[in-house]
Amino acid sequence: MTVPSQLIHESTSDQFTPKKEDKFTFGLWTIANQGRDPFGDAVRPALNPIHSVQKLSELGAYGVNFHDNDLVPFGASAAERDRIVRDFKKALDDYGMVVPMATTNLFYHPAFKDGAFTAVDPSVRAFALQKTMHAIDLGAELGAKTYVFWGGREGVDSEASKEATESLKRFREAINFLCEYSIDKGYNLRFAMEPKPNEPRSDTYFATVGHMLGFIYTLDHPDMVGVNPEVAHEYMAGLNFVHSVAQALEAGKLFHIDLNDQKGPRYDQDLRFGSENLKNLFFLVRLLENHGYEGPRHFDAHPYRTEDEAGVWDFALGCMRTYNMFKVRAKQFDTDPTVKQLLADIYAGNADHIALLDQVKKGYTAELANTIKATTFDPKALGERGYQYEKLDQLAIEHIMGIR
């Protein structure tokens, strides 16, 4: 099979041009976003999912992800569902695309206005489980290996409306049940939990990556559950996204990642990746690439409301190219002899003290504790040391800007 190779702009055929092996993915909801906002109606027509698969493939994307109703309309008959899935599978095969991740829309329909798994109405909670099981079936049928849970309305506007500990228990019961469902069906799915501090509710449960990591270890099957952090969501809480991702990586829990951008702790803007926070996202890409993250690089972002369909594909191409630019710049930074020598100088230290800390890595012994307590240190000299971080940071800036 020959995959179309036409690009939107001929000038983009360079080292930053996206390729399938880059594992770039987009949600059907991202490129199909019609530009609605709280103050204005749609500015773009709906995009057919098959057309989206074709265009993304032509741009060099690896796959597409979806909420259940991004692909199969809410309330579709069984026959309509089967026809849509059959046609979508054919498009994936025709254009060399895959579905690495799927999720459920538990926030759009009015039934979920008070949440899904944490809604006070037991009928809503049961309906949410039913809808999610059907969506898990759909994701597994299309080859998804990761299933994301974003609790869009799992929270409160009035604190008096819900008892928080009871809500957390209800959420845990739902995830435990769905883990068992996936195991029983033999789907071999990994679940990825997506935190967000607020919006569309005033306050959302599990606001950050740290909250979600703590919750995961209370589940019946913590090994099959990780996180799906999103750039904008952590920025909304005023946090450093690189540190959040590093914590997930170090814990072995980075199962998926949503890439976009954001102007400060405002509403969720879902801007084109790398369009605002160049420095932090440079270090994010460096972290992912240097630590061998093997999952999809998923863009959960939206084109500007000012764009027509041509602008949608400019947006998609821009997300992927910017990631590749950061990847190249990060490699150049790490291999720069000046940077390497500076880091060697920064990390150098007293050989005896380094030897002590090497023993600490191996674990506690009473003898080692006594040795450390008896060791002589020079706090005055330690306090007078300069670390050369200004020079190091400027080198990073010059690599980001393409000067070095």
What descriptive keywords fit this protein?
two-stranded antiparallel ribbon; TIM Barrel; disordered N terminus; eight-stranded parallel sheet; 404 residues; alpha/beta; 16 helices; 48% helix
Give the topology.
Blueprint: E1 24-27, H1 28-31, H2 49-59, E2 63-67, H3 68-71, H4 78-94, E3 101-103, H5 122-141, E4 146-150, E5 155-156, H6 164-185, E6 190-194, E7 203-204, H7 209-216, E8 225-227, H8 231-236, H9 241-250, E9 258-259, H10 278-290, E10 297-299, H11 309-335, H12 337-347, H13 351-362, H14 366-374, H15 379-384, H16 389-400
Parallel strand pairs: 1-2, 1-10, 2-3, 3-4, 4-6, 6-8, 9-10
Antiparallel strand pairs: 5-7
Helix pairs in contact: 2-4, 5-6, 9-10, 10-11, 11-16
Task: Explain the overall architecture.
This protein is α/β, with parallel strands linked by helices and 404 residues long. The protein is 48% helix and 8% strand. Helix 10 (278-290) links the parallel strand 9 (258-259) and strand 10. Helix 2 (49-59) runs parallel beside helix 4 (78-94) and helix 5 packs parallel to helix 6 (164-185).
End-to-end distance: 41 Å
Trace the largest sheet across and list its strands.
Answer: 8-6-4-3-2-1-10-9
Largest sheet: 8 strands, parallel
Total domain modules? 2
H and E order: EHHEHHEHEEHEEHEHHEHEHHHHHH
CATH H-level superfamily title of the largest domain: Divalent-metal-dependent TIM barrel enzymes
